[in-house]
Amino acid sequence: MTPRTALTIAGSDSGGGAGIQADLRTFFANGVHGLVALTAVTVQNSLGVQGFTEIPAEVVCAQIKAVASDMGVDAAKTGMLATAEIIRSVAKTLDELGLDFPLVVDPVAASMTGHALLREDALEAIRTELFPRATLITPNLDEVRLLTGVSVVDPASQRTAADALLEFGSRWVLVKGGHMTGTEDCVDLLSDGREYLELTGPRYLTENTHGGGDTLASAITASLAKGTSVPDAVAAGKKFIERCVAESYSLGAGVGPVSPFWVLDR
Ligand SMILES: Nc1ncnc2c1ncn2[C@@H]1O[C@H](COP(=O)(O)OP(=O)(O)OP(=O)(O)O)[C@@H](O)[C@H]1O
Ligand SMILES: Cc1ncc(COP(=O)(O)O)c(N)n1
C-alpha cells in the first residue's frame, strides 16, 4: 500500500542526528514516505556546527514544487531555513500550492550547542511569513524568549508564552519544556488559545538529546499526514520522542542523538 507522504523543508546534519536526517528516520519509523526540500548543508558533528552553506532559494522552492506536483504532500514541516530569502520564497511557494495540508513550523534558530542556524533577521521572517500559515509551531524555550521576550520558568509563564506566540497567527502552539530547569518532569504545553493541554512525561537523565526537537516535530507531522487531529498527533509525538530520548546513545565526543531504532524491535 502506498504510504502517506510528509515533506521536510530543512537542512542537512552531516552528523546524522538532527535536520533532514532526523526527519527522515522519524518519518520512516512512523510509516510515512519522507519528501525533502533541502535548505542548507551544515558541517557539524557531536561537538557543534562548524559552518553552513545555504541552497539557493529558487532550488529550495523547485524541490517543493517537484514533489508536490507529482507525489502529493499530506503534511509538511520546516526546520532549519537558513535565510530570510529562503523563508520568504518558501512562504510564497506554499501559497502557490494552495497550502491544503497541515504545516508544522519548528522555528530552529540555533543548534543545541549554541551555533546559529539562521542568518541575521531570519527569525523575524519566520514569525511574519510562516507562523500565520502554520497549523502548529513548536518553539523551544530559547526560541520563545527570542520571539516574545518571555522567559519560561514555570507553568504560568509557559502559558503566558503560549498566548503571546498565538498572537503571531498560527492555529496551535507547542511550547516545549525540555530546557525548563527545576522540574522533575518534562512538560510541553499545547494550546490553540481555547484549550491548554499539558503533556507531561518523565525527564530522562541523559546529555544525548541532539535532534530531539526535529524528531518531535517530524513525528507530529507524520501523524498529521495520516489525518490525526493536532492534539492527538502531539500526544503521539510526545510519546515517540520520550522513547527516543530514553534510547538515545553516545556517538562522538560531544552530544549524541536521540534514537528511533527501538521501533525496529516492535
Ligand atoms: N531529558 C529529557 N527526557 C525526556 N524528554 C525530553 C528530555 N529533553 C527533552 N525532552 C522532550 O523532547 C522534546 C524536545 O524538547 P526540547 O525542549 O528539548 O526541544 P529542542 O530544544 O528544540 O530540542 P533539541 O535542541 O534538543 O533538538 C520535548 O517533547 C521535550 O519534552
Ligand atoms: C541541520 C540542523 N537542523 C536542526 C538542528 C537543531 O538540532 P539540535 O538543537 O538538536 O542541535 C541542527 N543542529 N542541524
List the helices and strands and how they pair.
Layout: E1 5-13, H1 19-29, E2 33-45, E3 48-54, H2 57-70, E4 75-78, H3 84-96, E5 103-105, H4 122-130, E6 136-137, H5 141-148, H6 155-166, E7 172-175, E8 185-191, E9 196-202, H7 212-225, H8 230-246
Parallel strand pairs: 1-2, 1-4, 4-5, 5-6, 6-7
Antiparallel strand pairs: 2-3, 7-8, 8-9
Helix pairs in contact: 1-7, 2-3, 3-4, 7-8
The structure holds adenosine-5'-triphosphate and (4-amino-2-methylpyrimidin-5-yl)methyl dihydrogen phosphate (MP5).
Keywords: ATP-binding, Kinase, Nucleotide-binding, Thiamine biosynthesis, Transferase
Catalytic activity: 4-amino-2-methyl-5-(phosphooxymethyl)pyrimidine + ATP = 4-amino-2-methyl-5-(diphosphooxymethyl)pyrimidine + ADP; 4-amino-5-hydroxymethyl-2-methylpyrimidine + ATP = 4-amino-2-methyl-5-(phosphooxymethyl)pyrimidine + ADP + H(+)
Pathway: Cofactor biosynthesis; thiamine diphosphate biosynthesis; 4-amino-2-methyl-5-diphosphomethylpyrimidine from 5-amino-1-(5-phospho-D-ribosyl)imidazole: step 3/3
Structural write-up:
One of its GO terms (cellular component) is cytosol. InterPro entries: HMP/HMP-P_kinase_dom, PM/HMP-P_kinase-1, Ribokinase-like. One of its GO terms (molecular function) is ATP binding. This is Bifunctional hydroxymethylpyrimidine kinase/phosphomethylpyrimidine kinase. It is an enzyme of class 2 (transferase). The structure is a single chain. The chain is α/β, with parallel strands linked by helices and 266 residues long. The chain has one domain (5-265): Ribokinase (UDP-N-acetylmuramoyl-L-alanine:D-glutamate ligase). Helix content is 37%, strand content 21%. It has a 9-stranded mixed β-sheet with strand order 3-2-1-4-5-6-7-8-9, sandwiched between helices. Strand 8 and strand 9 form a beta hairpin. Helix 2 (57-70) runs parallel beside helix 3 (84-96), helix 3 runs parallel beside helix 4 (122-130) and helix 7 (212-225) packs antiparallel against helix 8. The longest helix has 17 residues, at 230-246. The chain starts with a strand and ends in a 20-residue tail after the last helix. (4-amino-2-methylpyrimidin-5-yl)methyl dihydrogen phosphate binds next to strand 1 and helix 7.
